[in-house]
Every structure is written in structure tokens, then in C-alpha cells.
Design goal:
Rossmann fold, DNA-binding, homodimer, alpha/beta, six-stranded parallel β-sheet, 45% helix, 330 residues, 14 helices, 3 domains
DNA sequence: CTGAAAGCGCTTACAG
DNA sequence: CTGAAAGCGCTTACAG
């Protein structure tokens, strides 16, 4: 492997000069700088990353902690290549990304103490209190991405970048109301995660604004199958309804399948709106109307801000606005 | 940050002894070893990664090069969380993974020369000849994962882990034949990538084995839309056919939508089989019969073998066997 | 069983 | 504009 020492020897200068030249320091004569760059180029020299990191006390890499359920069904489909987007954004800013599951209790601690990363994007809702407190106490640069652990929801001093879930629920419900629907069922997963509570809050807010008194909330598993089952089971209730707000697209698809098997037409008999905007919705018939959580923005804003935070110790509290995507199902 | 020097001072020993203790060298008295471990634990000590990497001349990380089209539609859907699987497998083996797009011409070279990674999993079919030759010449540990660049297809000295595409095409076609079909159309993407050529070879092999003379091959874009269009356009041809082997699931779904719009029933009038086994196929009606490319195996075998190769300089040439998944569409 | 010393490949304050 | 020297935090051959 070629080092700056090798180059120094060939060029007849000191290693310091080589370092300065290759790093484009100002106080180096054009002549030697060019000579040295030429030699480095010819030899295919690249700085040894470990040596640099050790000396500079930074790694130019952003740690990303992903949740265990990331490769479950829901994760797989919803997070469609979020990792790819994070990698791309980081690379565009000149950083690397170190994506990991938190495989042991003190894993995050370890990443920090070993100085493996310069900052942390935390995407795990189940991150332990101890871990978070450690990060806070060390004043280590971090941002909660997409999720906030529930016990920190109400703390004001937390950094985050996440979708405005309540707004999403509100948009979905308001759209249905504007279409003339009054009896609107929402399929939620209240017991699973607070984001469903927030979506439901949005649902309520829209109903209230429209002066609609009746709520229909079903708290179920957030899967295709359980949505399908729930719709079939509540056959009677359904007769009175005119629209469904499913709080994930997969639930929406399950609901639609149930409705079709009951010979109901969508959206003529019942309108259905989903949440997430997974790509599948594009291929299903009827094409799914839904609320988009813009993952590319999540990635871009997350990366940009953790980098800013690594430099300046600013506060980062950003909401990403969800978007109504109108297609055929509602 | 706490270092072994700090621990040494507290324990009243030399840094060497601390290093040896924490690394569990045999020739250290139980007593001091335990004492030192206790102190390290109390202080929350972790080895500085950069220092270790510099000294040991390795990083414990595997580089993964992903293709630019990774976040295109096809990539997004087909590669469903392949990255997550790679990360998980690597972590289970005690390694990190550095996933990157090849953003500039000599990026791979740079990763090698800067000693950022110990080995490379190459997943880009468009990797340049120069890059590959550089890797080969440096004798740097690498494996082609899933793809092999076309100009190296016929070289015998290449390391790879990939799905047996020909076998996949064969299995799909053979299944259709066994179901009694004779006039089988295949929707391929011959001009896009050699993997489609291989699937088509498999198709041909199965036909030949069954003594079927007629081939129906459509070379189109491998998208939902173009498959749909192709089917509609070839309406006449279709009247004679009894089955379709679409070489991606998305094409299968496009074909199905076209057939349904033409009031044909699946599988009664026309059987359709796909390729990939993307998750969407599970939710569509009719549920998609398809050929699975087992991505979890790809990840696991890829990671396991690059690690082996980093240690031993063995040859790695592994095919992953695709699997027939029978559901409803054929 | 333990320590002193050299070295991994850089960067940079200091001196000239 | 350039060099010698110290230091980043480890590991390990050598000596005892």
C-alpha cells in the first residue's frame, strides 16, 4: 500500500509537505503541489481512512439505527428502499452511512464510545431509555428519524425529523367528508404504536370540524389479513357506512378485498382511503387513494440535518408534511 | 473519551497489560485481568475503532456496491429489503457493512486503496472493466452478488453468488407444460440484461424437452405498463395461447390486468406465471404463481462467503436455486 | 506474567 | 514555503 511517506521519498520532500499538498493547503508552492499530486495520481494513492480518522477524531460517517421489525412485512413494504435513499443522500453530502440493528443492549453506547460514527439517526421506536439518556448526557449528535420512543414524546428538548401523522389522518378524513361522506370508519392500530393514535386524532379533528358526531374506530392488527377479517366480521355495521379510512395501505387493500368479496363496489358503494402510499397501490384495481409519507424527504432532511447538527449543535425539530394522493378508491 | 492509558493509570499497570487483558490474551494473571475488566466496564470503555483498524490493518467491514437503478421501481420492489438482510447477516457474523453507490469512476479503487473495507460484495451489473481488473490485479477479496457484468460472464475465474436464472425459466415453463399448456408466450427483456436471456434459455429448454416446437417470445421493457400494453396489442396472437410466462412479477401483474380488461379469466382462460416472488403477488387477486429468487439466501450466502474469502482466498462460485411458488394464477 | 518501545499512517503546532 | 517532531489510541515483538 502506498503512503504519504512513499510519495515524500519519491518527491524528495517531507511527509508533512505531501500531506499539505494533497489536502490543498494554501501555503505550498504551486510547483511542489503539482508535482506531488502527479506522483500521488500515478501511484493511485488514497489516504488511509483509519489513520485519518484516528488523527482527526472523526469518521465522516453517520450511524443509522433501524428497528428489528424493519424486515417484517410492514417494514419491508412501507420502507421501500428508505435505506437506499439514506445512502444516496449521505454520499451526495460526502458522508458514509453505517446502518445497523441494535443487536445488543448497549450497542448504541458502543458505537459512540468507540467513535465509530460522528452522529446518529435513530429510527427505532423501541430504543431504550438508558440509551437515549446516555446520548443526551454525552451530548452526542442525534436525531430521531420517523419514530420517537413513546416516553420521550412529550419532552421538548428532543431532536427529530418525522411525518406529521395527525395531519395525515386529518387530510384523509377531510377528503372523505368533502366527497360527501358522513359515516366514516377508521381502521387503526392504536395499541401498536402512537403514530396510529396521532392519525386517529387527525380523524377526530376532521370529524369535529365538520360537525360529525359519530366515530367508528376499529383497533386491530395493522395487517392485510386482519383488516380483511375485521371488515367481514362487521358486516352489519358496514351497511351503514359510506367510507373507510384505513391507517395503512395494506389494511386498505385487505378491506377492499373483503368488500369486493361481499359484492360491494369501490368507490361507488364504499370509498376507501389508505395511508403510506406504498407502490403496490399503483397496481391494484381500483388504484388506491391514499396519504403519502414522503420517504425521500425523510431521508434527505434527516441526513442534511444530522450533518448540520454534527457541526453546530443546533436544535432539529422538523415535521414532514404528508400529502393526499387521489386515485380511484376514494 | 477513555483510553487504555486511562485504565492503565487507574489499575497501576502498563497499557500493554490493559490491551492484553481486554483482548483476553492467555498469559495474564486472572487477578489483574479481572481487575482491569472491571475498571473498563465501570468507565464504559470501548476500543477506539480507528486506532484498532490502523494498527491491525483491517476494518471488519464488508463493502457492498449497489447499482444506480437500485431505487428505481423495479429495484425498489424486487430487492425488498435486501439491504436489511445483508446488514443483519453481517452483524450476526460480527461484521459491519458499508453500502454505497458507485458515484464516481474510481470509487471502488478508492475504497480499496484507502483500506476502508476488507472485502467487496459487488451487486452492480454495470461495474466497469477497469474496476474489475483492478480488483483482480490487487487480489482483493470480492464476490459478484446477484449480477455478473456481461463481459465477465464467460470467465471461469470469477467469484460469484447468484440465482440460477436458467433453472428458474425452466421451472416456470415446465410447470405450465405439466398443467397441459402447449402454446406458451414468454414476456422477456432480452435487450436489458443477460438474466433475461438466461430465463429465456430455460424456457426454451423446457419446451424442447417436451417436444414443443412453437416459441412465442416478446422482447419488451420489463415494466407493468409495457407488459399490459404488449398483451393488449397482441390480442390476436393471444387467442391462440393458453399460458404466459412473464419474466418478472410486475410484468405478470400488467399482463393479468390486460387480460382481465379483455374479459379473460385467469387461470381458466389463460394461465400466468411470474418471476421474482415479490410480496405484492400475495395480495393480488388472483394470487400470483411465480418463481422465487430467495433473497435471504442470497444475503446469507453472500455474506458468509465473502467472510470466508477474506480469510482464506478460496474460490466462490455458488448458484442459488430458484423455487416454484404455486398460488392461483397458474 | 508484565513492561518499554516501536509502529500503524496520517495531521498540525511550532520553528525557521 | 517547508521540515522535524509529537501525537491520535491501539497492538505486539522483544526482553525480562
Amino acid at each position: 500500500m502506498v503512503t504519504i511517506k512513499d510519495i515524500a521519498k519519491i518527491a524528495g520532500v517531507s511527509p508533512s509537505t505531501v500531506s499539505r499538498s494533497l489536502n490543498d493547503y494554501p501555503n505550498i508552492s504551486k510547483k511542489t503541489k503539482e508535482k506531488i499530486k502527479k506522483i500521488a495520481e500515478d501511484l493511485g494513492f488514497e489516504f488511509n481512512e483509519a489513520a485519518r480518522n484516528l488523527n482527526r477524531k472523526k469518521t465522516n460517517t453517520i450511524g443509522v439505527i433501524i428497528p428489528q421489525f424493519f424486515d417484517d412485512m410492514r417494514g419491508e413494504i412501507f420502507f421501500a428502499n428508505l435505506l437506499g435513499k439514506l445512502i444516496r443522500e449521505a454520499q451526495m453530502e460526502g458522508y458514509h452511512v453505517r446502518i445497523e440493528y441494535e443487536i445488543e443492549k448497549k450497542y448504541i453506547r458502543k458505537m459512540i464510545q468507540s467513535r465509530s460514527v460522528d452522529g446518529l439517526l435513530l429510527m427505532n421506536p423501541f430504543i431504550s431509555k438508558e440509551d437515549v439518556e446516555f446520548i443526551l448526557e454525552k451530548n452526542f449528535p442525534y436525531i430521531f428519524l420517523h419514530y420517537i420512543p413513546e416516553n420521550f414524546m412529550n419532552t421538548s428538548k428532543i431532536n427529530y425529523v418525522r411525518t406529521n401523522q395527525k395531519k395525515g389522518g386529518y387530510l384523509a378524513t377531510k377528503y372523505l367528508i368533502e366527497k360527501g361522506h358522513r359515516k366514516i370508519l377508521t381502521l387503526s392500530g392504536l395499541s401498536i404504536n402512537y403514530e396510529f393514535k396521532e392519525r386517529t386524532e387527525g380523524y377526530r379533528k376532521a370529524l369535529k370540524e365538520a360537525g360529525i358526531g359519530e366515530e367508528y374506530i376499529l383497533d386491530i392488527d395493522v395487517t392485510f389479513e386482519s383488516a380483511k377479517k375485521a371488515i367481514k366480521k362487521n358486516y352489519k355495521l358496514l351497511k351503514e357506512l359510506d367510507a373507510i379510512f384505513a391507517q395503512t395501505d395494506l389494511m386498505a387493500l385487505g378491506a377492499i378485498e373483503a368488500l369486493e368479496e361481499m359484492s360491494l363496489n369501490i368507490p361507488e358503494d364504499v370509498s376507501v382511503i389508505g395511508f403510506d402510499n406504498i407502490q403496490i397501490g399503483t397496481y391494484f384495481k381500483p388504484r388506491l387513494t391514499t396519504i403519502e409519507q414522503p420517504l425521500d424527504k425523510l431521508a434527505k432532511i434527516g441526513i442534511k440535518n444530522i450533518i448540520k447538527l454534527m457541526k453546530d449543535d443546533v436544535k432539529v425539530r422538523k415535521f414532514i408534511e404528508p400529502k393526499l394522493v387521489i386515485r380511484q378508491s376514494a
